[in-house]
Amino acid sequence: PRTIQRTVLGSLSENEQRGRSLSQVGNSSIRTLCNQRPSMFQTTDFLHSSQLNFLGCPSSSSYDVYVEEACEVVLAASDDYDLEVDANPLQNEHVRLLMEFSSIQPQMNYSSPGSCHDASMLSEPEESLISNYAEDIYKNLRESEKQFRPKPSYLERHPEITNGMRVILVDWLVEVVQEYKLGSETLHLAVNYLDRFLSYTTFIKRNKLQLVGTAALLIAAKYEEIFPPELNEFVYITDCTYAKKQLLRMESVLLKVLDFKMAAPTTNQFLRLFMFIHSVCSTTENLAMYIAELSLLETDPFLQYTPSILAAGTYCLATYTIHKSYWPDSLITFTGYTMEEIMPCLTSLHKLYISAETRPQQAVRDKYKTSKYCRVSGLKQLSILQSD
């Protein structure tokens, strides 16, 4: 039971949150893999109207998204556009196999209520797989991260959107993820989708920015979560600023702009891989995750760094704060990164870290004040970084 009743954020009832059957998950997985329309497997979202009143203006009946790739392409959508649904699921052996596969859940090692481990520990088979293929996984992630990077200066392409608006939107996404108990990877993916979409479009209106962010989280939850929220919940958390049809249409546009490339390497993925190669205590682990989520708030300078460098910087800052050590030899060998390469990013992260308490947006700090995350946002901060 929730100890604090939130008046602004939407909430799932216990039955809605835990009562969805495995068959629904199987159907959702198959529909996704069969490339059916998003309306067949839907999600949720909620918005603080007073915090995002500049984004929550009544939506117009149509909108235009200008996409720049090899040339300028115009994607237009209007309210009379109805999404089509393919009513012919695959009727073959592959469907049966997918159904069976989707009903098999990984065996997770959830921590006890009194511990401060994040409840996303790897099972023994997963640990074995990562151990055997860690170098290949890292190599693939490093190659992929170059293809999934947003443009650092993309806000110049959107005169009506400021960096402050984006900060408020991401801060709100953190609240949504926390309220619906979604994973950290879902948040990182949603911000990646948001930034990439804005990198390849121009002149997005300020009253559409929240719609883009909501659609990005909608897709990320479907991609990453076992039980994503329902579409009605996403509409509700935006204070019903947008209708279902608008959200589904924006989801479709976002997927097309991103060319359905959703498997983006994130700072969170690299960070967990680094902590697997060289394990740390739970406090250090949660502090690194906290700093990584803080970095999502700002485009400058953090979009200039690759997710792997950001992960290395968050790892170093966390280990230095707790243990007064930086980058272990095992990770130098594994990643090829030296402290000299990591230091510029580490310095930027440290400035963000020590200023977090005074920032207007506090959703990330509030999240990591809980015992689940060892209350790492309340730890004493080191004002100066010193070399070994």
Automatic annotation (TrEMBL):
Pfam families: Cyclin_C, Cyclin_N. The keyword DNA-binding does not apply. Transmembrane segments: none annotated. Keywords: Cell cycle, Cell division, Cyclin. It comes from the Eukaryota. GO terms for biological process: cell division. Residues 265-382 form the Cyclin C-terminal domain. Gene3D superfamilies: Cyclin-like. InterPro entries: Cyclin, Cyclin-like_dom, Cyclin-like_sf, Cyclin_C-dom, Cyclin_N, Cyclins_cyclin-box. The keyword Cell cycle applies. Residues 171-256, 269-351 form the Cyclin-like domain. Essential for the control of the cell cycle at the G2/M (mitosis) transition. Interacts with the CDK1 protein kinase to form a serine/threonine kinase holoenzyme complex also known as maturation promoting factor (MPF). The cyclin subunit imparts substrate specificity to the complex. Belongs to the cyclin family. Cyclin AB subfamily. This is G2/mitotic-specific cyclin-B2. It comes from Poecilia formosa. The lineage of its organism: Eukaryota, Metazoa, Chordata, Craniata, Vertebrata.
